[in-house]
Structure formats: structure tokens, C-alpha cells
Write a structure and sequence with these properties.
single chain; about 150 residues; alpha+beta; Ribosomal Protein L9, domain 1; Ribosomal Protein L9, domain 2; 2 domains; four-stranded mixed β-sheet; three-stranded antiparallel β-sheet; 9 strands
Length: about 150
């Protein structure tokens, strides 16, 4: 089945693309969630009209993500944790902890966008990437200090 993507779908393509997918995937997932519309002659004509608006909206989102990435480059999150002997942390610092620290600074980021290969388990300063949009990532500094 051919469908027109209304939004960016990571595994398929960008908004406005005409793609061929399995019938069940289109009927059960893409169309009900509003991610795509069936590519018939009527929808193609309507979509050509809407395509400009979608492209403008995508460009606006991209610019906002780039601006946020620039703002994030100046952000430093300090997280205090209890430490034991030899400066080892009790537990670790994960994506949820980083999200809470960013929210406390007034930056709304979903914990799913915090890209950590593995939780932080030591004291020190660590660079952490934040996924903002397709192809746009920002980087913040996370400083883990001993709790007094």
C-alpha cells in the first residue's frame, strides 16, 4: 500500500514522502495515529496543498531545535550523590536524574531524549548528549559531586 507521510517517521522517511508499506502497517499503525494517509488521487491533491505548510512547520521545529542545542551547550547540571570509600557512588546517575536537574533549571526535556550509553557511576564531569529533533543533538555537562 502506498501512503503519504504526514509526519517524520524514523524508519520510513520525512513528512511529505510517498512510501510503500505493508497493508497491515498502514491500516493498523500509520493511518490511525495520523502519521500517514492513503495515497489515492484525492489525498494526493489535498496533500500537495498541505505539503508547503508541513515543510514550513518542519523547518520551524528544526530551527527551534538548533536554538535549543545552542542554549544547551552552555548548561551545566550539578548532581549531588552519596559516596562511599574510594569516591564510589551509591547507585548511579541516569537519564531520569539528568531530566530532573534540567527541569529544575527551567529546561523541559523528556528523559527519553537523554542519550546515555550507560549510567554515570563515578564523580566528575561528563558530557551528555540530548536528542532534540531528527539530526539535531545538543550536549550538556553533567557534574557529579559528593553529597555533603
Amino acid at each position: 500500500m502506498k501512503v503519504i507521510l504526514r509526519q517524520n517517521v524514523e524508519s520510513l522517511g520525512k513528512a511529505g514522502d510517498l512510501v510503500k508499506v505493508a497493508d497491515g502497517y498502514a491500516r493498523n499503525f500509520l493511518v490511525p495515529k495520523g502519521l500517514a494517509a492513503e495515497a489515492n488521487s484525492r489525498n494526493l491533491k489535498v496533500f500537495e496543498h498541505e505539503k508547503q505548510q508541513i515543510l514550513q512547520q518542519a523547518e520551524k521545529i528544526q530551527k527551534q531545535a538548533e536554538e535549543t542545542a545552542v542554549r544547551l551547550s552552555a548548561v551545566t547540571c550539578t548532581i549531588a550523590r552519596r559516596v562511599g570509600e574510594q569516591e564510589k557512588l551509591f547507585g548511579s546517575v541516569g537519564a531520569k536524574d539528568i531530566e530532573e536537574a534540567l527541569v529544575a533549571q527551567g529546561i523541559e526535556i523528556d528523559k527519553k531524549s537523554v542519550l546515555l550509553d550507560e549510567p554515570i557511576k563515578a564523580l566528575g564531569e561528563f558530557p551528555v548528549r540530548i536528542k532534540l529533533s531528527a539530526g539535531v543533538t545538543g550536549e550538556i555537562k553533567v557534574v557529579v559531586v559528593a553529597e555533603s
